[in-house]
């Protein structure tokens, strides 16, 4: 009997159908050719050069809104989307975030809550990457508690006028359209805001030490006047915004499996080739124990992602399933990245190897789209029937 393949020890890809395997292989090949050779330089520079050019390549690949139907979207299924996230985050979390913010948050909100006119105006261009979107929910003083947002939308005749600030907005300074969430007299609502609107300003956030191969901005809305048709007709109440976040979190559940796999395979290769005391360090018991723990985490996370993906496709996925996946899989990926860094020794702190870059990125991934504490409390509420938030 053949020894299991280290890249997929439990043959989880054997549980995929042919179309899903083809999508995973296509995205992996694109990532290896187009992204992996450059990502260390992008991380070092703290940005993505020519993001619009890259967006059109992602559009041609078909990954923007690939789980959505119609309007130029691929309708490829939730597991296929998860696999694309896995292969992109195997290169870098910032690149997966670039895709998931566009497809799950901005496009997903318009697809689910928008009018037919809004969908026709924005979704086809966003699917091809000729138009970029962002999602404005988080504020400087409102992270885990989005219900305390201060951004407001008031009626002025038939128009809406928006004032407020949004923070940590991926793609914010390069987007053509922003989905902005604001408090109104009748509750929280979502709005489709062209970024060319007078009073809309986006500034890139500098000096990040994590998720550096990405574009992150703050957004200021200073009397942004919009027609009545800018409101997303189906997006009333905070639950609408949170349902969009759940879609993005699903991408994280899968994405961090890729980050963990990348760290594990780098450590395994290093352990086989790095010699100390006259033998490869992979021949020592302590290193083998680290590698064994790592392959456990990678494969357990992969099983979790696949199971949640199948639940989602069957319509049986509760938001607490996503919380379990994000909480558990991010923790597993962080353990793998840390162990991989230790196996690499001093070399592990350089950009010549991917492990510390992944470690730093995972610090952000553990925080955004719901902190570890928020997801733990979500699980607690599902288990006990009592919410600890308010």
Automatic annotation (TrEMBL):
Domain Acyl-CoA dehydrogenase/oxidase N-terminal residue range list: 18-129
Pathway terms, separated by semicolons: Amino-acid metabolism; tryptophan metabolism; Amino-acid metabolism; lysine degradation
Similarity comment: Belongs to the acyl-CoA dehydrogenase family.
The enzyme's E.C. designation: 1.3.8.6
GO biological process terms held by the UniProt record: fatty acid beta-oxidation using acyl-CoA dehydrogenase; fatty-acyl-CoA biosynthetic process
Pfam families listed in its UniProt record: Acyl-CoA_dh_1, Acyl-CoA_dh_M, Acyl-CoA_dh_N
Protein name: glutaryl-CoA dehydrogenase (ETF)
Domain Acyl-CoA dehydrogenase/oxidase C-terminal, residue spans: 236-383
Enzyme class: oxidoreductase
Domain of life: Bacteria
């Amino acid at each position: 009997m053949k020894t299991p393949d280290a890249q997929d020890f439990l043959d989880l890809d054997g549980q995929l159908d042919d179309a899903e395997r083809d999508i995973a292989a296509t995205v992996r090949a694109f990532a290896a050719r187009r992204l992996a050779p450059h990502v260390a330089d992008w991380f070092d520079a703290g940005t993505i050069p020519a993001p619009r050019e890259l967006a059109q390549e992602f559009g041609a690949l078909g990954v923007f809104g690939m789980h959505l139907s119609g309007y130029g979207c691929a309708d490829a299924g939730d597991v296929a989307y998860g696999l694309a996230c896995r292969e992109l985050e195997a290169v870098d979390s910032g690149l997966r975030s670039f895709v998931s913010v566009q497809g799950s948050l901005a496009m997903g909100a318009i697809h689910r809550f928008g009018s037919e006119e809004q969908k026709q105006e924005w979704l086809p261009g966003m699917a091809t990457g000729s138009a970029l979107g962002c999602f404005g929910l988080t504020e400087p003083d409102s992270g885990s508690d989005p219900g305390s947002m201060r951004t407001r939308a008031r009626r002025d005749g038939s128009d809406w006028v928006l004032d407020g600030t949004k923070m940590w907005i991926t793609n914010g300074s390069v987007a053509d359209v922003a989905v902005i969430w604001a408090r109104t007299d009748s509750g929280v609502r979502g709005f489709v805001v062209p970024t060319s609107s007078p009073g809309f300003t986006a500034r890139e956030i500098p000096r990040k030490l994590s998720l550096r191969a990405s574009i992150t901005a703050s957004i200021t809305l200073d009397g942004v006047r919009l027609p009545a048709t800018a409101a997303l007709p189906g997006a009333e109440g905070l639950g609408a915004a949170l349902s969009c976040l759940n879609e993005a979190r699903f991408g994280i559940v899968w994405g961090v499996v890729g980050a963990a796999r990348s760290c594990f395979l780098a450590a395994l290769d290093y352990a086989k080739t790095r010699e100390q005391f006259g033998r490869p360090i992979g021949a020592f018991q302590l290193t083998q124990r680290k590698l064994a723990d790592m392959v456990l985490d990678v494969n357990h996370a992969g099983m979790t992602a696949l199971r949640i993906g199948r639940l989602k496709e069957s319509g049986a996925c509760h938001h607490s399933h996503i919380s379990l996946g994000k909480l558990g899989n991010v923790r597993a990926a962080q353990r793998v990245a840390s162990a991989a860094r230790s196996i690499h020794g001093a070399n592990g702190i350089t950009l010549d190897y991917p492990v510390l870059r992944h470690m730093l990125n995972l610090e952000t991934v553990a925080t955004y789209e719901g902190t570890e504490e928020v997801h733990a409390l979500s699980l607690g509420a599902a288990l006990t029937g009592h919410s600890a938030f308010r």
